[in-house]
Records
---
Amino acid sequence: RIRRISITDRLLRHPGRLSMVYFGALIIIVTGLLLLPISTSDIIFTNFPIAFFTAVSALSTCGIPVVNTGEYWSMFGQVVVLFSIQFGGLGVMTFASMVALGVSRRLKVSQRMLTANELGTTKLSEVKGVLTVVLGTSIIAEVLTFVLLLPDLFRVNHGNMGRTLWQALFYAVSAYNNTGFTPDATGLHVNRWGVGLPILISAFIGTLGFPVVLNLVQCARRRLSPKRWTLHTKLTLVTTAVLVATSLAWFLLVEWSNTGLFPADDPGMKMRRAMSAAVMPRSAGFDISWVPEVTNETKVFMSILMFIGAGSSSTAGGIRVTTFAVILLICRAAFTGHRDVTVFRRRIPRRIQMTAVSVTTACFALVMVGAMMLMFTTGCAFVDAVFEACSAFSLGGYSVGVASAGNPASLFILSAEMIVGRLGPLTIAYSISRPMAPEPIRYPQENIIVG
Amino acid sequence: RIRRISITDRLLRHPGRLSMVYFGALIIIVTGLLLLPISTSDIIFTNFPIAFFTAVSALSTCGIPVVNTGEYWSMFGQVVVLFSIQFGGLGVMTFASMVALGVSRRLKVSQRMLTANELGTTKLSEVKGVLTVVLGTSIIAEVLTFVLLLPDLFRVNHGNMGRTLWQALFYAVSAYNNTGFTPDATGLHVNRWGVGLPILISAFIGTLGFPVVLNLVQCARRRLSPKRWTLHTKLTLVTTAVLVATSLAWFLLVEWSNTGLFPADDPGMKMRRAMSAAVMPRSAGFDISWVPEVTNETKVFMSILMFIGAGSSSTAGGIRVTTFAVILLICRAAFTGHRDVTVFRRRIPRRIQMTAVSVTTACFALVMVGAMMLMFTTGCAFVDAVFEACSAFSLGGYSVGVASAGNPASLFILSAEMIVGRLGPLTIAYSISRPMAPEPIRYPQENIIVG
Ligand SMILES: [K+]
Ligand SMILES: [K+]
């Protein structure tokens, strides 16, 4: 009994370090497997940069492809990619939950109860419990998507059952874990609702993040009104809804007559494509064929969306919608002359505000450095460099073609962005949430002039 | 006695509104004067967009030219521009000081003494006093620059005394007020130290901001050690030094072999040009001929520098170096697990932190919206749009040629950026510094997950 608690405690003491070891080990193993001739269709040794990039892209659930997944990799290679996506997605959800759990364990009992409740982990005081729920939720979501995809994929593949099963599995895993790899060389069949809609919904639920989904399920089961949702759930849902509505409006207004993006002269079809384009960029990155066709203005808009990203503790990346919301709430409080940052009749703690500011600043600096390095190494336009850096950092999975197999330096830059995008905000959030010793010296305040 | 205090109080009650009225009235008057045929060399009626843009550019001390100042405008027109620069510069320094003063008046006596001392306005409890000191400082700085410029300008103009006096006056006013207009059609003689150095020093002092200059002068007069400088002075000087050193290194490393920027194959000459390029972009914007020649990477770097801008209450713009420093200090505190944001053994008040975050966020949004609108109206590249929007917002005065007389929409977009760049951060800072009523309801805290 004592022994078990001590292992748990040791695991929980350094979740940041633990997640680095987990992802580091997986990157080495997967790169090694993808380097083997058995992983490719042509039975050749893959270049190291391509194998490494694909391993990082899959494990970080980013999904930017450097080669055509369905054509270049053999069935063995595709299975390796699929496992990488699954372990990458499970890994980040588990570690994020463990960080939250680790924080709650260290707080005082009264606060701890509150936090545990907020995270929807009331009865999960151990890692095993977290793992079970994360795994269970993933399996349920993926099996549901898998089943829903079967009928229409069966038709697409002209009755080839083996192919249908494999593609349904790949899409199901890829969608819930928000990775944009497609097993089909022709890309995603977004025009067919039977394929597009289950993927869209699964990816969308994946972007909300584990704590939100769990809280929603628990509240629904106990028949609690939306007023009883946690602040985190409310903030995530409202911000996500605003972002999706804005994107939808943007794509319909700005890109309506862009034939590269909306080929058919059919309003219904345009609506479906715009909906897909509005939900996907923040996370999934499926159906990338149209991305290089958008206007430069849309590239900038999408870069901002991708930078904001999706929900905390989700497999999608970015600075997270709650971080973005907190920054906006700080501005609102400041402009209206308030000192307390409040929303939904709750006060946002000071520590959370500092985390939001520093995550945003650090990530912005990271994306800018990455974009500059891409400009130096590939000579691409600033707008493309920003797009590619945002996509890699926020694990969006879209690409305008800056990174290519012919330029290893660009692949390594994007790999670095993906790794930091995967581990960075989590680690920052963790390092700030460490128990704080009371300040040994409290210096006097002095005013300065800003603005 | 009672009457005088009541006028002062009324003036101090709404410095934000007062500065809007002041700049609004001046923009109307100056635009009207520049529209007249007497203002142009060719005695023609100027187009409204050109006159409006030039008036805003001069009054905001931005200095982006849309026509060649020395060729297009007559002597009368140039005098109007010169007066605009002087009144624009004086206006912002006065209003910024009044905002600070107004804030200090409202605080409790003990805090008030401290604030007044920090601002270097110990004995200036009235608007008249502030005006006197601002005016006095400006006159001293401008007369000094004027005298220092005379000998070398006399040589440049081949002994033409009238021309020399006029150019020296124009450069002296333009430099201290950090406006990049040049009276000479051939541009600034940056290669001659006799012209370049006084302008560089005057512009640099102008970027520090009125409170810093005053504090330095007072400390020097009382022979106080640098340790006794105010926190505001220390933070401004250190951040400015780091930014200038970084720019210098950047220009020497990245642009060393760019013949467009450094034409001569002479290291000393390259050094002088790099020094000028390192100091100017954040503020003055003289010598713009080389700007379109820089690489895209340098344009991005300069955009960031311009966005950060110069000192508070200075004629230069941007979010101000102290705002930038506070953001970095919040990050440092967060990463090292501290709750107090401290620097130089002083604690940065909570209100200042909120102001810094909201000024930065609002200004970033403004620049992005401006850049997007420039892309829509002119079809220019993203990097050029960002550069131009940053330059206009932060009153930098450089241009890569996005705005042109042929495209009125682009001129109005940049004018809007300049006006908001001039009044925005000040107004935001003021609205936040308003007296805060104690929160009527204090909501309970609730944790959310960010990052
Ligand atoms: K993705
Ligand atoms: K300027």
---
Amino acid sequence: MFILFSRKQKLLVFFLPQLPAGNLQLTLYQYKTCPFCSKVRAFLDYHGLPYEIVEVNPIMRKEIKFSSYRKVPILLADAGSPLQLNDSSVIISAIKTYLISKRNSLEEIVSFYPPMKTVTEQGKEVLEYGNKYWLMLDEKETKRVYPVKEVRVEEMQWRKWADDWLVHLISPNVYRTPKEALASFDYIVREGKFGTVEGFFAKYLGAIAMFFISKRLKKRHHLRDDVREDLYEAVDKWVKAIGKNRLFMGGSQPNLADLAVYGVLRVMEGLEAFDDMMVHTKIQPWYQRMEEAIQRAAA
Amino acid sequence: MFILFSRKQKLLVFFLPQLPAGNLQLTLYQYKTCPFCSKVRAFLDYHGLPYEIVEVNPIMRKEIKFSSYRKVPILLADAGSPLQLNDSSVIISAIKTYLISKRNSLEEIVSFYPPMKTVTEQGKEVLEYGNKYWLMLDEKETKRVYPVKEVRVEEMQWRKWADDWLVHLISPNVYRTPKEALASFDYIVREGKFGTVEGFFAKYLGAIAMFFISKRLKKRHHLRDDVREDLYEAVDKWVKAIGKNRLFMGGSQPNLADLAVYGVLRVMEGLEAFDDMMVHTKIQPWYQRMEEAIQRAAA
């Protein structure tokens, strides 16, 4: 819920989407520490949408046995009839479209983001969702949501950047050294859903495995020897893109790119990589504004 | 131009896009035998849009020196001010949107398909265009163009299939044997823009090089040992998707998926792979209907 603090904020309330008065029941299947899940939570929280969380056990994953799509996040949405939404960016684009425009049912909106099988350069079959960074708005709605036209494309590009580039910097950074890998897994096991014995093994074996896997990821994504440098560079590039004349990329309020970048970076909170990032980049003022904006919205 | 032959076809004329009365000057930079260029020509011809062709010399490419985007096709469109459109599917989606809906300028429409830098799994930087299979229509236009709602997503999926899968079957098939490779290059040099000496060398060196490169492509895309089998399978899958109750995927008229598949397959005309495909698959009746539809439209 949005609370009015000042005269200035009274104006801002008009730009917030209408809240559907309890007519949208949401259940999020997630791993708490996964950046894609964190992105969805940041989005839902900021829009004041209540949702149930089902924490998925990452070893057995029996909580999502009902689904042929085997990744998290999955969002079950019930706006009359139950509907399964897959892929974090599809979830965000579809729900955002639904909040802005009541012309179509959520089911219809989701059908505008079709899964499309495709084959990567190396012949791996993958699922890609069409239009996934595009809100399905008519002209009037577009003018309302994007009074500055260029921001629509900018938002799209940075959302994709968050998914395709920024997320890949997380693992190499939080598993950089054996000590960091152990701290990360301690955090993952504490926050995630693990049995007691499972958790013990996951912590130590997971830390060892991810330490080595993260070296492979580092190589695959052509990161520098000191992966922090890539993280700092990415984060400062983001800050520079916002520039000095905007509080957020969305202007006076976060847009979907702000929420995506925040959601991804947030999973490092409490870890060495996060503290280093705060010290060595210019992200802090924006990051703090994001925290406040989400707290206000969820209050 | 569309010519009325019968009463039945009189009805169909309403579904054809309005032809802009000469207010859209188009110049296509192409290699004649490239499938992506052929796709664009099939689209422009079917829609009765006149255009100039600039055949690009594939060795020096000085005809597209003006452009920082270094691939063909490139379409220069002048609907008041000159505008460069890159990527065959963006060209097709943007021009099609423009033909249906006069709400936005072509420049605005093109901005809805933004280039987005992304990094592939192997760390290669590539340019991807957002929304590239999506027509930017409002509700009324959507209902007019897609009276059967499901066809919109179907069209999108098969257009992507043509770009991501079908095109990859062409090279391995037309350079399958040394003899076929030579015949293909004879055709490419004859149809393309080459100097005399250049053409001679291109033909023999090109044939040898592509014979070997096509083996690598075959491996990369996990094709079968006999690449014809993959071609036959793909083509029959397409025919099956249309089914028995439609002349085209678009119903009684080709849609953008029909034009894409036709455009890709057409580059094999006159080569052994094409004749084999006609004999060993069920494509012929549809292919012939496509030829006729385009001939009628361009007449």
---
Amino acid sequence: MKFTVNRSYFINNLNSVLKATSSRSTIPILEGIKMVLTDEGLVMTGSNTDISIELLVKASDDLQIASTGEIVVRAHLFSDIVRKLPGKDFTFDVQEGNQIKITSEHAEYMINGLDPSAYPRLPEISDDQSFAISAKTLRELITQTVFAVATDNSRPTLTGVSFTFSQKQIKAVATDSHRLSQRVVGVDNGPSEDLSLIIPGKNLQELAQLIADADEDLKVFLGDSQVRFDFDNLSFYTRLLEGAYPNVDRLLPATSSTSVQFHVSDLLSALSRASLVTHVNRTNAVQMEIDAENNRVNLTGNSPDLGKVEETVENLGIEGKSLTISFNPDYMSAALRASVTDIVVINFTEALRPFTVVPNDNEIDFIQLITPIRTF
Amino acid sequence: MKFTVNRSYFINNLNSVLKATSSRSTIPILEGIKMVLTDEGLVMTGSNTDISIELLVKASDDLQIASTGEIVVRAHLFSDIVRKLPGKDFTFDVQEGNQIKITSEHAEYMINGLDPSAYPRLPEISDDQSFAISAKTLRELITQTVFAVATDNSRPTLTGVSFTFSQKQIKAVATDSHRLSQRVVGVDNGPSEDLSLIIPGKNLQELAQLIADADEDLKVFLGDSQVRFDFDNLSFYTRLLEGAYPNVDRLLPATSSTSVQFHVSDLLSALSRASLVTHVNRTNAVQMEIDAENNRVNLTGNSPDLGKVEETVENLGIEGKSLTISFNPDYMSAALRASVTDIVVINFTEALRPFTVVPNDNEIDFIQLITPIRTF
């Protein structure tokens, strides 16, 4: 196995595969990247058992193939070496006993490769169940929901985002049981029958990063316990979470008694000031006092140790009756940061009932739910 | 005590004082900044027992004084608050019971201040022993030596840089007993009698950062166990290290049998490649093979676990006899990064004797010494 490749072009591809390799794995071979060189090109595979990435670098002027073969190379070391090589190109040459000779200009490395037959196989996922989704849509669905997944493992299904794909729309929901984020988007060519799957939140974050700038469609392939996303020259595998996702529709309140509109930026900065003092408290609650009569909203953060902050937050209109409510400022801030409009509507019912944060545009089907905190 | 101040102007000053405050001190009052407001202006003091900084913000249009007084405010919280306030200005108003009211536009904080009489006094340093030094010169002396101080505490004096100030020159030396860096610069107005002091390395790093862009002279005041640097509106206090600094002059070799010139950048990149494999070894040694006959320098890094790297390093001339020597690549890299010239001369005597790295310009009195590693 021997090839010569343009270094910066190779680094770009290597960076994608590195996302799936862990530097310390309990399975030592997974600290490596499997490299399979055929006449078609170089296939690099990385896996951390949670996600796997397989990437094809096609033979071209930038990748010149001298002889085919396969090897596993220590990901971390290899990446460091490639980054520091002096030349524009480098040559990768596997010699006897899995020794790899890497040369670039006057520098020559001879590093120990690992046996490629010891590298585990990736799951085979048939083409039976597949459909396309635009990269932009998927990225939005992820970033607008993934922050709300549970971070503790007491209810494993809640650590993932629940997706329901149907012919005309995709619904994504995440909740940690204190707050919830649900986004629905319309699509043209969803799968012919409804499909539901729960994908671990942190795997989705990796996927969102990988497709950051992609503009085209991704192809989604469904396996039994895995799902694969194909785009560009790359396949992204993630395990699925088993179990039934709770039916959250019944949690969403149908009516409200108080509605306030805010500029996202106004409320965000007031919350960041209030949380400076509330973050030291175990309860971490800010109080919002909505005075419908005087059209005034006051925000208060309080900590017996440090002190207190109070301010009037600019509002763009109050409907309904006055109300005082306490909530976690971090949940509210996360909801606001996920907002797709500059102005949001917050709908309350009672001081101890969950309230919703929605865009001020009815066309956008995006609802966030936050459970208040009892402070008395 | 009450003042109104321009926020961004205040933050710049606050940042300097924060360098001396620790967020978790065993002396709780030192987590605070002492603020003393007189008609002249606001004096802010921060201290972490190792260094102290006292800074005067003069009364001006940017700092309007309503009433004088003093208070201690929690540094970390106060800094966070000031950064997040909504307005261009803010008002700081001390009320009964050390309560501090901070207002800016529609936001109002009420935080608990601390008793200013509980704040420790800074050492008094008389003006008897003082002299001036240019900020640029001091900064250079620090950055060219401080990296070589000892990081373990087995010989406390070696954790500092030894300075000898005399009328015509300043000498700075640091050594951790494996390598040494000594820089001598000429000055016009040194102190009339020779002064020697050892200043802790990490305190010097803080000082170098503080004077980063300063162009004027610093005034140095010597106390018994402390030294104070005055510049701009700021006084920087650091404790001194007690004890005698070893006489290092006798360590510097007078002759050499092999001299090689290198471009700093060539040798640095070759070392960074070699250390990729040597860093995993306990000995962390690279081998340099100087072949005087063929005018060739080879650098080799080797690790039984990972592999080996070997390369020819461009040299600008070899004088004397051939030699093979092993050394810690990190010490060599640090020496090269401190270099003030693009080309250095490395002078060797024997494979197991310390060697020196000096500028290729005889006018510059800067010598670095590195002890080789025995690899057989």
